[in-house]
């Protein structure tokens, strides 16, 4: 199957700093990518849909000014957590759909810890 | 609002002890129901997609089935390496391909 990578896999930062997470589709193009957040022992919650060439679509309750999404190319989407606080500590996972609706490929995730 | 409920939350089995995981869903229209396996600290790994009631799919010791209201993931003669969290997700008709996930079942298979 297709491969989605994320970088970094783990990041620790101080409160108030900004952190950028990259999501890449390695061997296919993705005009749409999805960003999820997962708290310990909980399921994946969709944060936003990243669209190449247009603005991201955010789910209800997700602050678009805090979680900046840029879909720079057909293989790269970035999530920037601005002015991070300890409550933003979580596991962030991106995914990209394949050519058909029955394919959805997930990245390995990024563990963010805000001190 | 689309809802996905998985049960049990956690399940401990002895090696070789078969069992089933349940995924109940409420969705306005179902495009597909997905099963994923997730190991600690990793992203979900795709297992199956089911599209219509009555459909079944198998992969090694796993078999997924679908009805109009729920899906089951049957595990036959599990091994310790099957220990993981199993996630169920629905893709509603008309969605932009995003998935709504259940909370998962944490499976532990003891040797």
Layout of secondary structure:
The complex is a heterodimer of chains A (115) and B (111).
Chain A: E1 4-7, E2 10-13, E3 19-25, E4 32-38, E5 44-51, E6 57-58, E7 67-73, E8 76-81, E9 90-97, E10 104-106, E11 110-114
Parallel strand pairs in A: 2-11
Antiparallel strand pairs in A: 1-3, 3-8, 4-5, 4-9, 5-6, 7-8, 9-10, 9-11
Chain B: E1 3-7, E2 10-14, E3 19-26, E4 30-38, E5 45-50, E6 56-59, E7 62-66, E8 70-75, E9 84-92, E10 100-101, E11 105-110
Parallel strand pairs in B: 2-11
Antiparallel strand pairs in B: 1-3, 3-8, 4-5, 4-9, 6-7, 7-8, 9-10, 9-11
Top keywords for this entry?
heterodimer; A: 115 residues; mainly beta; 7-stranded mixed sheet; 4-stranded antiparallel sheet; 0% helix; 53% strand; globular; B: 111 residues; 6-stranded mixed sheet; 5-stranded antiparallel sheet; 11 strands
Description:
The complex is a heterodimer of chains A (115) and B (111). Chain A has 115 residues and is mainly beta. Helices cover 0% and strands 53% of the residues of chain A. Chain B contains no helices and 11 strands. In chain B, strands 2, 4, 5, 9, 10 and 11 form a 6-stranded mixed β-sheet that branches. The relative contact order of chain B is 0.34. The model of chain B has no long low-confidence stretch (mean pLDDT 93). The A-B interface holds A 1, 4, 6, 32, 34, 36, 41-46, 49, 57, 91, 93, 95, 97, 101-109, 111 and B 31-32, 34, 36, 41-46, 49, 51, 87, 89, 91, 96-104, 106.
Strand percentage of chain B: over 45%
Query: How many individual β-strands of chain B?
Result: 11
Question: Major sheet of chain B, described briefly?
Answer: 6 strands, mixed
Runs of chain B in which pLDDT lies below 50 for 5 or more consecutive residues are none
The largest inter-chain interface, given as chain pair and residues per side, is:
A-B, 28 and 25 residues
Structural class, from helix and strand content of chain A? mainly beta
Shape of chain B: globular
Distance between the termini of chain A: 37 Å
């Amino acid at each position: 199957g297709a491969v989605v990578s994320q970088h970094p896999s783990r990041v620790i930062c101080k409160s108030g700093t900004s952190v950028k997470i990259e999501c890449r589709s390695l061997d296919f193009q993705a005009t749409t990518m999805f960003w999820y957040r997962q708290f310990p022992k909980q399921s994946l919650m969709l944060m936003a849909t990243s669209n190449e060439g247009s603005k991201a679509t955010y789910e209800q309750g997700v602050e678009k000014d805090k979680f900046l999404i840029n879909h720079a190319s057909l293989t790269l989407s970035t999530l920037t957590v601005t002015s991070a606080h300890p409550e933003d500590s979580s596991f962030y996972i991106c995914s990209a759909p394949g050519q058909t609706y029955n394919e959805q490929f997930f990245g390995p995730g990024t563990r963010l810890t805000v001190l | 609002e689309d809802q996905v409920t998985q049960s049990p939350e956690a399940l401990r089995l002895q090696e070789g002890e078969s069992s089933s995981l349940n995924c109940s869903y409420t969705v306005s229209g179902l495009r597909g129901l997905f099963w994923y396996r997730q190991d600690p600290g990793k992203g979900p790994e795709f297992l199956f997609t089911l599209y219509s009631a009555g459909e079944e799919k198998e992969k090694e010791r796993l078999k997924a089935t679908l009805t109009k209201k729920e899906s089951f993931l049957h595990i036959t003669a599990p091994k310790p390496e099957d220990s993981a969290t199993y996630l169920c997700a629905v893709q509603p008709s008309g969605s932009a391909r995003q998935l709504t996930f259940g909370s998962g079942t944490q499976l532990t298979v003891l040797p």
